[in-house]
From TrEMBL:
Keywords: Membrane, Transmembrane, Transmembrane helix, Transport. The keyword Ligase does not apply. This is MFS transporter. The lineage of its organism: Bacteria, Pseudomonadati, Pseudomonadota, Alphaproteobacteria, Hyphomicrobiales. It is found in: Endomembrane system. It is a multi-pass membrane protein. Residues 257-457 form the Major facilitator superfamily (MFS) profile domain. It comes from the Bacteria. The keyword Transmembrane applies. GO terms for cellular component: endomembrane system. The chain crosses the membrane at residues 57-77, 89-107, 113-136, 156-178, 205-224, 258-283, 289-311, 323-342, 369-392, 404-429, 435-454. GO terms for molecular function: transmembrane transporter activity. It comes from Bosea caraganae. Pfam families: ATG22. PROSITE patterns: MFS.
Length: 457
């Protein structure tokens, strides 16, 4: 096996090693696109649970538990991994757990005792495992290229990840997932491997498909990408990692503007996590979209996210990163307001013709408006993610950027459970999916108000 040690400072790793690192995002993305958002999640609500309100609440609680575990484990494990080295070993171990949980989704059959709990548990553990793998993979980046090329390689990985999500979704829609009314996929053929389209077995197959996809495309990283040298092991490593984390937290009060920014980022990131977790579920339940329609919607949002990231970066050079973040948060609130005004037979106060059972895809006015809203959400989320990290660069001491980027990552995770949990509680208490989605307005509004008080260099 090649690629045992990281590149020396000032030297880039071989191209094959860089390609292995970039392919990690491609390997992991189907879980976020297909399992968590636009594929398995609507199936879980519509078929596994069979009650849109209860299903959205269950999914919200499950997402919140996963986010809480990620918030607790990520900073601690991250500090420990930094002390130990051997990052590929961690990626391989957490990747194996992730793949196993994805395969288990195939065995969660609707109507069987314990299937709902088993499915939620599998998705929860898979989410924790893949997020830890993502964290460790990100930590490999500075050892692969010179600092002046880190941004370029990071952007390439993120863009390729989004493209991978689109490709994986397209494969699932054309080969696995069928319209339950016709039993045919988007290509007009029966699902491959003998999957029963009428019983939507293609949606259950998303789990094993995501596991296989990850297993295939993670191999170049494990085989060719250089790893950090082992530093130390055992209890001293854990103590050293936790000590480094405590030191970073103690430093924060000395930088009040940075502290307010990190709190703002924490709040609006919570809202963004919940928005993506619930967007496909809302479309499936309120507009009655099939798995194929939700999948196509997901491809649209993902593609818009790529364009938004590119446009957001250019806009930062013109009006500044803080202004771009404030603008995108305002537009996300507008998109949420538009979402709440939609129903199958109305757009705001205006009555429209509802979708017909024998219709062409997205032929009703309400559906087309939701497509436009989804495009806006994708554009804003891409621009938001691209510009938020630049705000940090304008606030953090230049000689301690790595340390504060660690705190930046922590702020995006430490309360990430609050968004999905708030949606779940509001949905259950008000017996309304719209009430659950409306709660997210608060997250964006509070984050926006707090960021408005922050002045950057």
């Amino acid at each position: 096996m090649t690629g045992d040690h990281a590149a020396r400072p000032g030297m880039a790793a071989p191209r094959l090693a860089l390609a292995g690192w970039v392919l990690f995002d491609w390997a992991a993305q189907p879980f976020f696109s297909l399992v968590q958002t636009f594929g398995y999640a609507p199936y879980f609500v519509r078929v596994m649970v069979g009650d849109p309100v209860a299903g959205q609440a269950y999914w919200g609680y499950g997402t919140a538990v996963a986010a809480l575990l990620i918030a607790v484990l990520s900073p601690t494990l991250g500090a420990i991994v930094d002390q130990m080295g051997r990052r590929k070993l961690w990626i391989g171990a957490t990747g194996a757990i992730y793949a196993l949980c994805c395969v288990l989704l195939w065995f969660c059959r609707p109507g069987e005792p314990g299937a709902i709990v088993m499915a939620l548990a599998a998705v929860c553990v898979a989410a924790v495992a893949i997020e830890i793998a993502v964290m460790v993979n990100n930590a490999m980046l500075p050892g692969l290229v010179d600092r002046s090329h880190v941004g370029r390689l990071s952007g390439l990985g993120a863009a390729l990840g989004n493209v991978g999500g689109v490709v994986a979704t397209l494969l699932v829609l054309t080969l696995f997932v069928a319209n339950p009314g016709t039993g045919k996929t988007l290509l007009g053929i029966a699902p491959i491997l003998g999957l029963d389209g009428a019983h939507q077995e293609g949606a259950r197959a998303i789990g094993p498909f995501s596991a296989l996809w990850f297993g295939c495309f993670i191999l170049p990283l494990l085989l060719f990408t250089p790893d950090a040298r082992p530093i130390r092991t055992g209890t001293p490593t854990i103590r050293a990692g936790l000590s480094a984390l405590r030191a970073s937290l103690r430093e924060l009060p000395r930088h009040p503007a940075l502290l307010r920014f990190l709190i703002a980022n924490m709040i609006y990131t919570d809202g963004l996590v919940a928005l993506f977790a619930m967007g496909g579920i809302f479309a499936s339940s309120i507009l009655g979209w099939t798995a194929i329609q939700v999948g196509l919607f997901g491809m649209l949002v993902t593609t818009a996210g790529i364009a938004g990231a590119l446009a957001g970066g250019s806009l930062v050079d013109r009006i500044g990163a803080r202004a771009v973040v404030l603008l995108t948060l305002g537009l996300l609130m507008a998109a949420l307001a538009g979402t709440l005004s939609l129903g199958p037979d109305h757009v705001g106060p205006w009555a429209v013709a509802p979708p017909r059972p024998d219709r062409v895809l997205f032929d009703s006015a309400a559906e087309r408006v939701y497509l436009a809203i989804g495009t806006l959400i994708g554009l804003c989320s891409g621009a938001l993610l691209a510009s938020t990290r630049i705000v940090l660069i304008g606030l953090a001491p230049p000689d301690r950027l790595t340390q504060f980027f660690g705190l930046f990552a922590l702020s995006g995770r430490v309360t990430a459970f609050l968004g999905p949990l708030s949606v779940a509680v509001a949905t259950q208490l008000m017996a309304s999916q719209r009430a659950g989605i409306a709660v997210l307005m608060v997250f964006f509004a509070v984050g926006m108000a707090l960021l408005a008080t922050v002045k950057t260099r």
